[in-house]
Design goal:
The chain is mainly α. The protein has helices at about 1-35, 45-70. The chain is elongated and about 60 Å long.
Length: about 70
Amino acid sequence: MGELAAGIAHEINNPITYVRTNLSVLREHWSVLRKAIGSFELPGVLEEVISDGEDLIDESLEGVDRAAGSCAT
Protein backbone atom coordinates (compact mmCIF):
# COMPACT_ATOMS: atom_id res chain seq x y z
CA MET A 1 0.00 0.00 0.00
CA GLY A 2 2.85 2.37 0.81
CA GLU A 3 4.48 1.77 -2.57
CA LEU A 4 1.20 2.53 -4.31
CA ALA A 5 0.78 5.78 -2.39
CA ALA A 6 4.38 6.77 -3.12
CA GLY A 7 3.90 6.04 -6.82
CA ILE A 8 0.72 8.11 -6.98
CA ALA A 9 2.37 10.99 -5.13
CA HIS A 10 5.29 10.86 -7.56
CA GLU A 11 2.96 10.93 -10.59
CA ILE A 12 1.13 13.95 -9.17
CA ASN A 13 4.29 15.79 -8.10
CA ASN A 14 5.89 15.70 -11.55
CA PRO A 15 3.23 17.86 -13.28
CA ILE A 16 2.93 20.05 -10.19
CA THR A 17 6.65 20.77 -10.45
CA TYR A 18 6.26 21.88 -14.08
CA VAL A 19 3.30 24.09 -13.21
CA ARG A 20 5.17 25.66 -10.29
CA THR A 21 8.24 26.36 -12.41
CA ASN A 22 6.13 27.92 -15.17
CA LEU A 23 4.22 30.07 -12.67
CA SER A 24 7.49 31.27 -11.14
CA VAL A 25 8.80 32.29 -14.56
CA LEU A 26 5.46 33.95 -15.35
CA ARG A 27 5.73 35.92 -12.09
CA GLU A 28 9.19 37.15 -13.11
CA HIS A 29 7.94 38.14 -16.58
CA TRP A 30 4.92 39.86 -15.06
CA SER A 31 7.21 41.83 -12.76
CA VAL A 32 9.36 42.95 -15.72
CA LEU A 33 6.24 44.06 -17.59
CA ARG A 34 4.94 45.88 -14.52
CA LYS A 35 8.23 47.79 -14.21
CA ALA A 36 8.33 48.55 -17.94
CA ILE A 37 4.87 50.06 -17.98
CA GLY A 38 5.21 51.60 -14.54
CA SER A 39 6.23 54.93 -16.01
CA PHE A 40 3.02 55.14 -18.05
CA GLU A 41 -0.33 56.19 -16.70
CA LEU A 42 -2.68 53.32 -17.44
CA PRO A 43 -6.44 53.46 -17.66
CA GLY A 44 -8.07 52.07 -14.54
CA VAL A 45 -9.18 48.90 -16.26
CA LEU A 46 -5.64 48.01 -17.40
CA GLU A 47 -4.20 48.79 -13.98
CA GLU A 48 -6.81 46.51 -12.47
CA VAL A 49 -6.01 43.71 -14.93
CA ILE A 50 -2.29 43.94 -14.14
CA SER A 51 -2.93 43.93 -10.41
CA ASP A 52 -5.37 41.02 -10.69
CA GLY A 53 -2.78 39.11 -12.73
CA GLU A 54 -0.23 39.52 -9.96
CA ASP A 55 -2.73 38.27 -7.40
CA LEU A 56 -3.75 35.31 -9.56
CA ILE A 57 -0.15 34.24 -10.05
CA ASP A 58 0.58 34.48 -6.32
CA GLU A 59 -2.58 32.57 -5.39
CA SER A 60 -1.82 29.89 -7.97
CA LEU A 61 1.71 29.47 -6.64
CA GLU A 62 0.33 29.15 -3.13
CA GLY A 63 -2.15 26.49 -4.26
CA VAL A 64 0.50 24.53 -6.13
CA ASP A 65 2.79 24.66 -3.10
CA ARG A 66 -0.03 23.34 -0.89
CA ALA A 67 -0.77 20.54 -3.35
CA ALA A 68 2.91 19.62 -3.57
CA GLY A 69 3.13 19.60 0.22
CA SER A 70 0.14 17.27 0.45
CA CYS A 71 1.72 14.85 -2.01
CA ALA A 72 5.00 14.82 -0.11
CA THR A 73 3.43 13.47 3.06
